[in-house]
Structures are given as structure tokens and as C-alpha cells.
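Suppose you are handed a protein chain with no further information: no name, no annotation, nothing but its sequence. What can you learn? This example shows the usual starting point.
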Amino acid sequence: VDPRRVGFGVIELGGGRSRPGEAIDHSVGFVIAARPGDLVRAKEPIATIMAADDAGIEAGKRALGEAIVIDDEAEYPLPLISHRVTAEGSVPYEASDTPAELVVESR
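A reasonable first move is to predict its three-dimensional structure. Written in C-alpha cells, the prediction is:
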């Protein structure tokens, strides 16, 4: 998923500003149910478009079509934490660096 394209898609729906002072429609946006690496099947919904009108639905389809890649090979996302800063400088982060009581499983 290309988050930048999703963000611009929300702006196209009216849920964000392209210029200061523009109104924001808080009722529009996307819910992306499939996560990177998930197995998806044909005809299975992977996202929901919330739009104010038919033009918004079409803009949402276009944005998500450009933002979401479905392939035979799963590409797993980069880790949320890649490095940590210490007194000695920046060092690659290892999951073992985190005390067990701070580890949170998301699935």
C-alpha cells in the first residue's frame, strides 16, 4: 500500500486540504481491511470507500487502484523501528533489545 497515494485520495474525496482554508468532509475516507502480506481471494473486499457522491466513489477506486498492489508474492512491510539512538550513536534495532514486558503482539 502506498500511503502517500491513499492520503492524496482522501484529499480528492474532500477529507483533506490542498490549500489552507478549504473545508474538510470528515465523513469521507478509506478503510483498508487487508494488510500487507495478507492472502486475499478474488471478489473478497479489501477496502471500503466512504464518499459523498458517485464522483467520490470513482476517485476513491482510482486512488486505491494506484495505491494497492496485489501480487502472487507477498511483500512484507518494513519494521516500524529500524534503528535506536544510544549515547554511542545510531545502531540497528533488534527485537531482542526490547524488554519482554514492552513487546506487544498485533495479530
